[in-house]
Fold each of these.
Amino acid sequence: MRPSKALPILALAASTAVSSVSAQICGLDICVYINENADTIRFRMETTASRGWMGFGINTAGGTGMNGAEVFCAEKNADGTVSVSHRYASSQATPQIISGSSLTIVPNATSTANQKFVATFDRAKTSTSSQIATLSTSAAQGVIFAWGSGGLADHGSNHFASQATLLAPSNAYSSSSSSTGPSQSIPTDSTSANDAAQASDRLRVAHGLLMFIAWCILAPAGIFVSRYMKVSLGVWWFRFHIALTGVGVGALTIVAFILSLYVTPSSRHFSVADPVSGSHRVLGLIVVILTVFQVVIGIVIDRLFKPERKGTPWHDKAHWWLGRLSLLAAIANTYVGILYYDNTYGSLTKSTTTGLYAALSILVALVAVVFGVFEYRVGATKHVEEVKLNH
């Protein structure tokens, strides 16, 4: 969430903060309460008084990140007022003001007093705009949080993404204009929420790392050995091939797949609503299915091998081409995975994202050159004397 220095959309004088109940949706040290009324949705955003601005967003495309998020930015002004702007994030860039949208401030529930920075406002319950989210009473939706210490500016690393059932009764708040202060203090940081988010993020990184090792290193090595090293390695080519692909690629792919299921809400396991995340899930599922099938067909091919055979049977050729298809799909999905992670969780700097793309491209190019050289100089090798290897 990278808001610009745009003019405030709503401004009001600081006033007495109001009481709130204990239920809330929290990320970083921002907590949000949501009430559903007849024609409006009321939002109450709270954070510590030291923050210069805070932002809260709701993903409108079924994802959990910044891309496609309706965003509310609240900023403290120099004269003691608070400004709230209604925005839409179409990319990892400054969310733009939503044209024609209006928010209604709740003056007696917005302030920078009592060691808290609070902004309360209403927006229409329904809208025909694709930039405004429809909140659910039962399904988890992607939410994002961000803050800065000065005026509206790039949040840097101060951002957080999660999911929440926004209109669940437990997320509502109560208020009283006669209250002299908040009945509940907001913690300086949501430790448990951040710890959980960091743990999930580590699992996502582990998923990506396992798939990278499996498909960008082990799979090409396994294919290389089986195609070019039969003569030079003798009986060992098959053993290396099994170790690299059947055990290495197969095991790492299954573990990575389980991790992806674990860190993704069950309602979104196979969701394709968002083009990027949907593409990643579809390609990933294809790769997992092909991996399992390739391991099974590899075992069958080994059992059907006949030293006296005169040609290459169809099932061997199917194994070759399915392996190549799996490799291409997995490499393509690695690129999509980097884009998905950056779009959804926004925790990569531009230079890091560029570096990952560059490193992956260099590795892919290197593998392609090595295969090209060996294809030209060595060509595909066959079983030595077509004798079944003793393995």
Amino acid sequence: MAESFVFQTAGKILGNLTARAFREIGQIWGVKKEFKRLQLTVSAIKVVLLDAAEQKKKSRQVEDWLEKLQDVLYDVDDVLDDFMTEDLRRKVVIKGSKRKAAKNFFSSSNSLALRITMSRKLKKIRSRLEDIDADRKQFELIERVPDSLVAYPIREQTHSFVCASDVIGRALDKNRIVKLLLSKSSSSTSSSTIENISVLPIGMKNLTTLRHLRIYECPSLTFFSAKSMRYLSSLEVLWIWKCEKLSLLEKEETMMELPKGLLSILLSGIQKLKELPCGFENIAATIKYIRIEDCPSFEKMPEWLQKCTSLTKLQLVNCMLLESLPLGMHQLTALRELCINNCSEKLSRKCERETGEYFPWISQIPEIYLK
């Protein structure tokens, strides 16, 4: 039932907004008050959802209200995911920067612009939600508590940065985790260091509950073990950042298959990347976020992109050889944001509003950023 998904999404949003990670994000990004207002609005809506579920049987207006609420709550969830994503990017930048640069992260014009953009996104979605909340009042819905209190706990974000300094915990536990990631099988150990790893080990297939995998600054990493990735059945987020030697070129016997439930992928600083591998196509049905940045050889988006009907954000940054988009962009009906930043001038001209060759294909996208 749709209302059960609305109830769960509202619970997830509230769980995130009250978590320590988001309290820190609110403080750092200067949106603490916005988060609080959002929390209060979602809370006020959530307590009447059970009554709304009953009333919709008698009222088409209430049913329409629930459908609109569902759309807005999904967008709220996406915006909060954006904050989490950008904050993780901030931490990665700081991790690789000198201390002085880290202190001044938000002082650069680009970072300041990002902060303003994120703040505007939050205010915009909060305003939409408050409009929905205002509509609620005309139905005189009653606050109700479930007969048996059902909690929707937010699972702790399980993720792995393949970087020794990112493994947090007691020293013994840390060593065990590092050995697990580096061992060629679950029963063997390795004396290698993360910095010298050239292939993600087959032993990773044991991490079947891993949801987030972020691989950062592995200078010796050259390719993935196809067998390792396909077993990560719970994987939702895959980030690969600053692995200069990594090649995703495929041979039939080593074709890399990503888990079908993947929601978010970021590929950054991969010098040899020319296009997305064919093995990525099996994520088309679920992928919501694609970001490709600082890939100087990247020159082509795949034709299967038109199958990504759940894709909400496509960001292409610093890919100077990229001159075209695939046919079928108009079929991406869920796409809400297209960002093309510092790619070829030819591509930017093709996407210009009204005059660009591609504009009829992308005109339905609410937010288009060309820089």
Amino acid sequence: MEKEGSKEGSIYRRFKPHLLMVLSQMGYTFLYFITEASFNHGMNPHVYITYRHVVSGLVMFPFAYFLERKVRPKLTLALFVEIFILSLMGVGLTLNMYFASLSYTSPTFLASMVNTIASLTFVIAVMLRMEVLDLRNPRGVAKVVGTLVSLGGVMTMTLYKGPIMKNLWDPLIHIQRNTTIHENWLKGSTLTVASCVTWSIWYIMQALTLKRYPAQLSLTTWMSFIGAAQSAVFTVCVDHTREAWTIGFNIDLWSTLYGGAVCSGLIIFVQLWCTEKKGPVFVTMFNPLSTILVAVLAYFIVGEKLYMGSIIGGVIVIVGLYLLSWGKEGNQVAKIKSEEASNTAHDEGVLAPEPYIIGAVIVIVGLYLLLWGKEGDQEAQIKSQEDSSPAHDVLKGHNTQGFTSAEGLLKAEP
């Protein structure tokens, strides 16, 4: 009995990061729907970012203060500047660029580009020698193949629709949406690509900062408060009205509380812990799961259309995640040995990844151009959908700005 209990405990400890990341993506999935309802109700996205991270900081502060008093390092000026830049990459700059780009491009394009963050993070991690990559080892090949397969699955979900799946019942929730897009390809695509790059850098910086500041609760609190201040400055510059900062006892308040306490607080803490244990690539490789969960829930609950392409793409994503996870598990020991003998890592057989890096960059650029070519078709599809009968908003029609669908909010958070 003791051996069985020890074996079960060992399995739990081994797959604890995997379980936590799956639960995190489930938490993000609910956020997408409640935030979409809030934005359609009239909530300013930039004000939402500010209030949400204020809530996150207030919720996490007591836990960080009391639980990490003995392990929290002294905050030096250099470390504060590093955390300030980390907050800018994760909150102040990235999220505001992302939400600003929503006004100029289609939600389909945004969902596709943001799902390339995992691939970008993998490429950057390999370049910085933070990720062990041995192409002579089957597990090393599995990491490369798994990353590309997951990226291909996400692109399949976005670019290939296929036959439409018949709804099994009437939607349980009706959400009215604004499909108006003020298209400006150059400005919108620039903001989107920039936000993806800064998001990837944010994940990489987390791993580096945690080595000098190994206090996840305190780091989450600092990022929340500093990010909220940065976002507040940006919001004041773009919107001076007092009405934009006023929220009532309605869906705006609940979305802010949930987004702050759960997503920007608890889930970010979980991601930092997983980043310290498994690395930034491990964390980002679970991001496409929320794409699948949102599509499935939107079909069963909101009554959105589900296409065969989404199902096929979801299966491909899961296969890619399995390959990447298998590859990382086998290389975990090699990574530890590499950190202990970093000066001799190259001589011990860690291959130079230059050919793969060049290939990955070409793939990403090619996908970017493909999305640009598909943009015209996506706009025509959106216009054709505007002729369908409008649903009734459960919040009684306060629709001022929002997303085309739940899939348009697929990646509203890192």
Amino acid sequence: MDYVATVFAGAAAIRAIYSVVRSQNKSTEVEIRITPTKGRVLSISSSVVYGYVGNKASTFPMQVMGFDVDPINSVQLSNHTGYKNFKGEKLEGKKLEELYIGLEQLNLDSTYTHIMTGYLGKESFGDEVASLLLKIKKKNPSVTFICDPVLGDDGKLYVPECFVSLYRDKLIPHAALVTPNQSEAEWLSDIKISDLDSAYKAVRAIINKGAQNVVITSLHLPGREAYVDVIAVSQGLREGEYYHLSLPRQKGKYSGCGDLCTGLLLVWFHHYPNDFKTLLEKTFASIQAVIRRTRIQGIERCNWTELELIASKKEIESPTVIESARLRYSSYRKHTLMATTRVTL
């Protein structure tokens, strides 16, 4: 049998099997269509027509890695705000409520294994996200919530100040994983970060708000200007322990790295929920590779370079780990151990 005949024969066999399943049980047909390979993600974030930020940056890597992704765009812009000009609009909370009702009426909201949030835009939209999250978790308590608390960067808020309490009081308590940058970790914890120990204390404060696991995705520490530091505290670690990953800082300004990071963290958290060393290494190996390719091949516009995301498909699927994450101990744990020793003696 030649190649074309083989293909047609295979297709006919698949159609025959599908027909049998459909005729035996029509509900099974629906189940086949909505059951994803690895999971189904409801991703609520910003989006752009041109470039890769928000949902445009996170959706592709999750899909490449086997997840179905249903994006809701909190903001729809022509391009990201780093450009000289941009056009678009922010979605009101009422519009998000309408979209959710449409999903709920068909019971499609029960199909999600993951919810991921990024930039939320308007206060009313953020409040509606908190409401939506509770509704979905009531239907499916096992749904995994990944929260990127997009507040700002470099000490500057991108959103109204009320979003700090929204994240801290309404979203973070339900999160399996929270992924702030340094400024966001400081705002959420009320702790100024100046070194790894203070970063650890900030993470512990966020965990005390109800988060199960926290990764600070980028630290810019005094005396370490040539590096970007990442730390993570997971449920499996003892008091005072954290994972630390040190990455060489690459020159340039690249939009969408935080959104890409959150999407990849969701993927690897799904595979390694109890192994944050591997999770960090794989996530940031891909990010470093994407930035490296972008730095070489990308086109700079308005002092920003859009990520070469599609060209980096291989690096996303099969990251080559170069930098290793190390288990470290904060001075908090050392002081605790010393105090315990003195009491024992």
